[in-house]
Write a structure and sequence with these properties.
The two termini are 27 Å apart. An eleven-stranded mixed sheet has the order 1-3-2-6-8-7-12-13-11-9-10, with helices on both faces. The protein is of the alpha/beta class. 38% of the residues lie in helices and 14% in strands. The chain has one domain: Alpha-Beta Complex (Amidase signature (AS) enzymes).
Length: 475
């Protein structure tokens, strides 16, 4: 197996190679670490790389395989942690000067604890915008995450570092967070896979200042890796009072069962190319329509419909801006001038929202969630584009010359489903005429990740997406 094949392998293939002693977790960890160091200056996926820690975990995994006692399907599988998520022994900078030189954490976040228990090998922490406030990945520390398909372009955000790591084979499984699209947007813009699970499916701690719009989820290169990672992440944890019990059936098993059944005959799939309020780039729209035709060929019943979302922009900003205000209340006054000006601006708007308006926003959100639950009583899935536009120039919050002001204005396909807390997944739909990825978003009813994953797997099998060329071959 050459380096390209090794860095492209999924978790199941690696597990089989480990068991046969054809490859070891140490071999894979070293290859991923070498790739991480080689690509760091150019693409800035990492805020921290820890060779010593990763290799120690890989050696422990290798010894378990030698004894024929692996901990499970993720033992020895390399991955990363977004630098908003606590990991014992590593600092949490959150992309901010205001965290100073933080001491190493003394405990893991629930999701890290759950994955570490499977024997996963963590390589380091991935870059984020300051406190994850926007759908781009650049921050006051000078970190600018760049798109692997074209380094002049953004990788999206806020889990942009994780998406780059997935795309370039710097680990197989990556922890992302999503408060308004922060998993699905970078997945869509980098040609990778990202799932925002139902809220509560994956436990989170500490609570996000953005409240119950913020989710934790998996980012990978393939649907099977996403399912395997979600199986390990979906645990009840006493640190998160919103966390729900673990599902009765493993997602990877459900995915396999659907594959054996074959086809999607009779499945009711709603299709909306614009959700009734979004302007979509022609190349993105064309790739979306091609994706829809795949499900029609698989036997699904396609219905073109506008979901009952209305115009949710103001509803989301009422939640997001208030969350930003909550966040800045935790920052000492003397450090606030070091915060990203955009984050300061939306926090200021959040502080101006009256308590009456905030209560009305909660009630309006409840009505929206109920409407979407009723919508999914009549439809199995909803298909939309993941992002309305291809990647644009890195270092900008909006496409230069677009006349837009905030990232939320071009992220209309993602944030509605943070409000409704439904599972939503981005998978690669193909490349635009400029050679940039576009994504297909698959949305399901609450707690129906199994159906979302099965549809993604069927699409992946029917239309394998292009593999990323090594960055050294790019101009």
């Amino acid at each position: 197996m050459n380096d390209h094949e090794l860095l492209s392998a999924n978790a199941r293939d690696l597990h089989d190679l480990y068991r046969s002693r054809s490859l070891s977790p140490v071999d894979v960890a070293r290859a991923c670490l070498e790739a991480a160091h080689r690509h760091q200056e150019r693409f800035c996926a990492f805020s921290l790389i820890d060779d010593e820690c990763a290799l120690a975990a890989a050696r422990a995994s290798q010894e378990r395989f030698a004894r024929k006692e692996p901990l499970g399907p993720l033992d020895g599988i390399p991955g990363t942690i977004k630098d908003l998520v606590l990991a014992e022994g590593w600092p949490t900078r959150r992309g901010s000067h205001t965290t100073g030189d933080p001491a190493p954490e003394t405990r893991d976040a629930p999701v890290v604890r759950a994955l570490r228990a499977t024997g996963m090998v963590f390589l380091g922490k991935t870059t984020t915008p300051e406190f994850g406030w926007k759908a781009l990945t650049d921050n006051p520390l000078g970190e600018i995450a760049r798109n692997p398909w074209n380094e002049r372009m953004t990788a999206g955000g806020s889990s942009g570092g994780a998406a780059i790591a997935a795309a370039l084979g710097m680990g197989v499984m990556h922890i992302g967070t999503d408060g308004g699209g922060s998993i699905r947007i970078p997945a869509g813009l980098t040609g990778t896979v990202g799932l925002k699970p139902t809220f509560g499916r994956v436990p989170a701690y500490p609570p996000s200042p953005y409240g119950t719009v913020s989710h934790v989820g998996p980012m990978t290169r393939s649907v099977v890796d996403t399912a395997l990672m979600l199986d390990a992440m979906s645990v009840a944890d006493l640190d998160d009072w919103y966390a729900v019990p673990a599902p009765a059936m493993r997602f990877a098993d459900a995915l396999d069962a659907r594959s054996r059944e074959g086809g999607f005959a009779g499945m009711r799939i709603a299709v909306s190319p614009d959700l009734g309020f979004i302007d979509v780039h022609p190349d993105v729209l064309d790739l979306f329509e091609q994706a829809v035709s795949v499900f029609a060929r698989l036997g699904a019943r396609i219905e073109r419909v506008t979901p009952p979302l209305g115009q949710p922009f103001r509803l989301f900003t009422d939640h997001w801006y208030t969350g930003a205000a909550n966040l800045l209340e935790t920052i000492p006054e003397g450090l606030q001038d070091r915060i990203d000006p955009g984050l300061r601006e939306i926090a200021s708007k959040g502080r101006e929202l009256s308590s009456t308006r905030q209560r009305h926003a909660q009630l309006e959100r409840a009505r929206l969630g109920t409407a979407m639950q009723q919508f999914f009583a009549d439809h199995d899935l909803l298909l939309t584009p993941s992002v309305a536009i291809p990647a644009f120039e890195a270092g900008h919050e909006v496409p230069p010359g677009s006349g837009l002001e905030r990232w939320i204005e071009w992220a209309g396909f993602s944030y509605p489903f943070n409000l409704t807390q439904q599972p939503a997944m981005s998978v690669p739909a193909g490349l635009t005429a400029q050679g940039l990825p576009a994504g297909l978003q698959i949305v399901g009813a609450k707690f129906d990740e199994g159906k979302v994953l099965a549809a993604a797997a069927a699409f992946e099998a029917a239309r394998p997406w292009p593999r990323l060329a090594p960055p050294a071959t790019m101009p």
